[in-house]
Design a protein that fits this description.
By secondary structure, the chain is of the alpha+beta class. About 20% of the residues lie in helices and about 30% in strands. The longest helix has 20 residues, at about 740-760. Mean pLDDT is about 90; it is low at about 1-5, about 265-275, about 380-385, about 450-455 and about 680-685.
C-alpha cells in the first residue's frame, strides 16, 4: 500500500542517497572541511591525543574467552591499530604478564592484501579447537568475508581446500570439520535474489568442503518480507543440534529444531507460512518471546503475557523446562524469574549446574544463582507459579566505592563444558566512577537442588580478582546520584547524574545528557575514561566541572518489555517526552539551563537527538547526533531499515505515516519551523532557534547508512540554519570507527563541539 500523493513530501536531497557518488562525496568533503575548521585548535588536538592514549593504554583489561585449554583475546593498541588475535594459558593470564601467542596480525594482513580489514570475530571448531572461521570486514561495516583459519600453522586455509566466503552479510557455523551451516546473500535482487527486504539472508545452506556456495543445499528459507533467516549448529558433544530462526520482524519470530536425520526446507521460492519446513520441528511459544536452547534446557523470555494450562505468566518472565519435555508435551515451562514492580531481568547465563540471572532493580544490578536442580519438573506435574529470588540466592559482591553505589554487573560462563571449571563465571563490575574489575567466581557446591542448603546471607562464591582497570581520570569530589523526573503522562523516569557532590544550583553547570530509548536496550552506568577526561574533569571559565547524565527513558529495557512497548510506533513520543522531562528537571533543580545543557545519542539515539532539535529546541544549547535515523519516510528502503518497522511503524501505510511524520526530524524541519532558526541559536531571542547541532556518520555504515544524516544537514543548511555542522568518516561502519585512533577522533570531535557550545557558555 502506498501513501496518498498529498502525503508524500517533496525531497530535494535524494541525490545525497547515492552513497559513493562523486557529487555527494564532494559535498561530504566540503562539510568535513567546514566542521574540522570549526574545531581546529590546540585544545581539540590535546583532547584527541588524550583519548587515543586512553583507548590504546597497555594496562587495559584484556578480556578473554576460553576455548578448550586456551584463553583467546583480540587486542588493539597504538602499535597494532587493526589488532592482534592471540591466546594464552590460564596460569599465564592470571599472572598479569602473559606470554601471548599471536595467531593473526590484522595490520600485517591488511598490508599484505591491500585491504583495510577489520576483525569481526572467530568461531572455533569443536572438539579439537584447531580450526576457526574468521569474520573480516573490509570497511568496518556489517558485511564480512568468512575465511577458514588453521590455528596450528597460523595461516588461512584457502579455497578449494578451505572454506572461503565472499564479503556479504554472512553468518556461518561449523556442523562438522567438512560442513558449515551458512546464511549469506549471493544475489541481492529484490525480487528473485536470496536477500530479504531488510538486506539480510533469507536462506540457510549446508556447505560441503570444496563445494561451491551456489550449489549448497538450502535447508531453511523465510519469506522475503521477513527480516532474516538466522541459524546455528551446536556441536557440543551430547547436545548436537541445528537451530533456525525465522525472524518475521524485529520482535516476532519462530524457532525451529532440525530433525537429527536432517531435513530440507529447500523451496526458498515459497512465501510466508508456505516456506518448506520439512525435517524441522517448531518450538510452539509466543511469536514475540525470546527463545534460547542450551544443552537440555529451553528458556523462554516473555515480552507479553502467556497463558498456559498451569498458570498465566506476565511479560518479563523467564520460563524454563527441558527441550525434550516441551517437545513431547510432558513438561510445561516453569518460571525461573517473575518481574515485580521496579524489577526486571537483564540477562541470564548457564553454568554446568546453575542458571545465573542478572536482575535490575530501578536500574541497579544484582546477581542470583539458581541450581539447575531447582528448575527440574516437579514430581506432582503441577508447575510452580511463583519464584522468590530471596537473599539466599543472591551472589554477594563487595562495592569498594561508596561514592558510586550503582555498579553494573556482567556475567558469562567461563566454560560449562569443562568439568574442571564448569561452574566458573566471569563477572565484570563497573560504575560511572568505578574502574572495571574482572572477577572469576566459582559457585559453591553447597547450593542444594531445591535451594535449601544455601548460605543464609546469600551465595558467597570463591572469587579471584583477575584484573582491575586503572583510574583514567581524577574522580575526587564526584558522585553518582539517581533522580526521577515526571514525564507528561505522570510516569516517573529515572536518570543518573554523575558530577560534583557539591553543586551551585544556579543553572550554570555544563551538563551532557546521554540517551537511547529503543529496542529494549538499557542505558546502564559504566566507567568511561573518554567521558571522564572529555567531560567530567573539564572546567568552564567559572571553574565549573562537567556533569554527565544517563537517561533511562521509555523504549529501553530498564523496566522490562512493558517499558519498551510503551514507546513503540504511535507512542514513540513518550520516549521524547521522557527525555525532555529530564532536561526540564535538570533546569528546575538548578543544575543546568538551556545555555549549559547538551545532549548526545547515536543510531536510534541519533533519532532522539533529531527529535530534540525539532520538537524541543528550547531545552538544549547543543546536540551531537551520530549515525542517525532522521528521514522516517524513507528509512525502510535505506540499508537495513525495513527490519525496524516493528519499532517505528511502516511509512508506506498511510495511517502509520500520519504518526511517523510527527517524529521524523527531516520532515519536522518543514512541518514545524523553529522561531529564530535562521538567525542562529539565540538570534530569535531567548529560548528560540535550533541548538548547535553536529550530525555525524560513516560512509561504510551499512546498517542505518549515511544518507539520512547527509540529508538532514543539507536541508537545514538550505533553510538558512547556520549552526548545523556535519562530518562523515569514510569507514568505521555503524560503530563510526574501525580502530582506536578513529574512535578517539570521533569522541573528541563530538565532545569538543558540545563543550564549545555549553562548556564555554557564559
Amino acid at each position: 500500500m502506498q501513501p496518498s500523493p498529498d502525503s508524500q513530501p517533496t525531497d530535494d536531497f535524494l541525490w545525497l542517497e547515492d552513497i559513493h557518488g562523486q557529487k555527494p562525496l564532494d559535498w561530504v568533503r566540503q562539510q568535513n572541511a567546514r566542521t574540522e575548521s570549526l574545531l581546529d585548535s590546540d585544545r581539540f588536538a590535546d583532547l584527541q591525543q588524550d583519548l587515543t592514549a586512553i583507548l590504546d593504554a597497555p594496562d587495559r583489561i584484556p578480556h578473554v574467552s576460553k576455548r578448550g585449554g586456551w584463553y583467546y583475546n583480540f587486542w588493539r593498541d597504538g602499535e597494532h591499530p587493526r589488532g592482534l588475535w592471540r591466546r594464552t594459558r590460564w596460569e599465564a593470564y592470571l599472572s598479569g604478564e602473559p606470554a601471548w601467542e599471536v595467531l593473526l596480525d590484522v595490520d600485517a594482513l591488511a598490508a599484505a592484501e591491500d585491504t583495510d580489514w577489520v576483525f569481526a570475530g572467530a568461531r572455533l571448531l569443536r572438539p579439537d579447537w584447531d580450526r576457526a572461521l574468521l569474520s573480516l570486514s573490509p570497511d568496518g561495516g556489517d558485511a564480512v568475508a568468512v575465511r577458514e583459519f588453521d590455528l596450528g600453522t597460523r595461516s588461512f586455509v584457502t579455497a578449494p581446500e578451505g572454506f572461503e566466503l565472499p564479503v556479504a552479510k554472512t553468518q556461518a557455523s561449523w556442523i562438522s570439520r567438512d560442513q558449515l551451516l551458512v546464511g549469506t546473500v549471493t544475489d541481492a535482487d529484490p525480487e528473485a535474489g536470496d536477500a530479504t527486504r531488510s538486506s539480510y539472508t533469507r536462506n540457510l545452506r549446508v556447505l560441503d568442503r570444496g563445494g561451491p556456495l551456489e550449489a549448497a543445499e538450502t535447508v531453511f528459507a523465510v519469506d522475503r518480507e521477513h527480516v532474516a533467516a538466522f541459524g546455528g549448529h551446536d556441536s557440543t558433544p551430547g547436545w548436537e543440534r541445528t537451530v533456525a530462526i525465522d525472524a518475521i520482524d524485529f520482535y516476532q519470530s519462530t524457532t525451529w529444531l532440525r530433525d537429527p536425520d536432517g531435513g530440507s526446507g529447500a523451496d526458498g521460492n515459497r512465501s510466508g507460512a508456505d516456506c518448506d519446513r520439512t525435517g524441522w520441528r517448531r518450538l510452539d511459544v509466543p511469536l514475540d518471546a525470546e527463545v534460547d536452547v542450551h544443552r537440555q534446557w529451553l528458556t523462554v523470555f516473555l515480552k507479553s503475557e502467556w497463558e498456559l494450562p498451569g498458570a498465566a505468566h506476565p511479560a518479563g518472565s523467564l520460563l524454563v523446562c527441558t527441550v525434550d519435555g516441551f517437545l513431547d508435551g510432558s513438561e510445561e515451562p516453569r518460571p525461573a524469574f517473575l518481574p515485580t514492580r521496579g524489577t526486571t531481568l537483564s540477562a541470564w547465563a548457564w553454568t554446568a549446574s546453575h542458571l545465573v540471572l542478572t536482575v535490575l532493580q530501578d536500574v541497579a544490578s544484582a546477581l542470583y544463582a539458581l541450581p539447575q536442580g531447582s528448575l527440574a519438573a516437579p514430581e506432582s506435574g503441577v508447575p510452580s507459579s511463583r519464584v522468590a529470588l530471596d537473599a539466599t540466592r543472591r551472589i554477594l559482591l563487595e562495592n569498594p566505592n561508596p561514592a558510586d553505589p550503582f555498579l553494573t554487573l556482567g556475567v558469562a560462563a567461563v566454560d560449562d563444558e569443562d568439568p574442571d571449571c564448569g561452574d566458573d563465571l566471569w563477572i565484570t563490575a563497573t560504575g560511572a566512577l568505578t574502574p572495571p574489575t574482572l572477577l572469576r567466581a566459582t559457585l559453591p557446591t553447597h547450593l542444594g537442588a531445591a535451594g535449601t542448603e544455601t548460605v543464609p546471607a546469600g551465595v558467597v562464591p570463591e572469587l579471584v580478582t583477575v584484573r582491575t582497570g586503572p583510574e583514567r581520570f581524577d574522580a575526587t569530589g564526584l558522585q553518582v546520584r539517581q533522580h526521577f523526573a515526571v514525564s507528561d503522562d505522570g510516569t516517573r523516569v529515572p536518570y543518573f547524574q554523575i558530577g560534583p557532590a557539591e553543586l551551585e544550583l544556579d543553572g550554570a553547570n555544563p551538563v551532557l545528557m546521554d540517551g537511547y530509548g529503543g529496542f529494549l536496550a538499557s542505558k546502564l552506568p559504566g566507567y568511561s575514561g573518554v567521558y571522564g577526561r572529555g567531560w567530567l574533569t573539564r572546567r568552564n571559565p567559572e571553574g565549573r566541572q562537567g556533569i554527565h547524565v544517563i537517561a533511562n527513558i521509555r523504549g529501553g529495557g530498564e523496566y522490562g518489555p512493558d517499558w519498551h512497548r510503551a514507546a513503540l510506533k504511535q507512542n514513540r513520543h513518550r520516549a521524547y517526552e521522557d527525555f525532555a522531562a529530564i532536561a526540564r528537571d535538570l533546569k528546575n533543580r538548578g543544575v543546568a539551563d538551556r545555555a549549559h545543557l547538551a545532549a548526545t545519542g547515536r543510531s536510534n539515539g541519533g533519532l532522539l537527538m533529531g527529535a530534540m532539535a525539532t520538537l524541543y529546541p528550547e531545552l538544549f544549547g547543543a546536540l551531537s547526533c551520530g549515525v542517525p535515523l532522521l528521514d522516517m519516510r524513507r528509512y525502510t528502503v535505506l540499508s537495513a531499515g525495513h527490519s525496524w518497522i516493528a519499532e517505528y511503524g511502516d511509512p508506506d501505510v498511510p495511517a502509520e505515516w500520519e504518526f511517523i511524520r510527527t517524529f521524523s526530524p527531516y520532515h519536522l524541519l518543514l512541518d514545524r519551523p523553529v522561531a529564530g532558526a535562521v538567525q542562529g541559536r539565540d538570534g530569535g531571542g531567548p529560548g528560540t532557534g535550533y541548538p548547535d547541532l553536529l550530525v555525524w556518520t560513516a560512509t561504510s555504515d551499512d546498517r542505518v547508512g549515511p544518507e539520512q544524516a547527509r540529508k538532514m544537514a543539507a536541508r537545514m543548511l538550505d533553510l538558512g540554519v547556520p549552526n548545523v555542522w556535519f562530518h562523515e568518516d569514510l569507514d568505521g561502519g555503524h560503530a563510526g570507527a574501525s580502530d582506536n585512533r578513529q574512535a578517539a577522533a570521533l569522541h573528541a570531535r563530538s565532545l569538543e563541539f558540545l563543550w564549545k557550545a555549553v562548556g564555554d557558555a557564559r
